[in-house]
Amino acid sequence: MPATNPSWSSSLKPFLLWTALCLLGPGALPVLSQASPDDDYRLVVDVDLVTVLASVTSDEGALAAGLSRNDFHLFEDGTPQEIALFARESDRSLRLQLLFDSSLSITTELGSQQEAAIDFLRVVVKPGDRVSILQVSENVVELVREASRPKAMAKALRSIRPRGGTSLYDAVYLASQALSLSRGRRVILVISDGTDTTSKVSMEECLRQVLASEAVVYVLLVQPIKSEAGRNLAGERSMIYLTRETGGRTFPVASPDALRESFARIGEELRTQYLLGYYPRHEREPEQFRRIRIEVDLAGAQVRARSGYHATVEPRRPAGAP
Question: pLDDT higher for 201 or 3?
Answer without folding.
Answer: 201
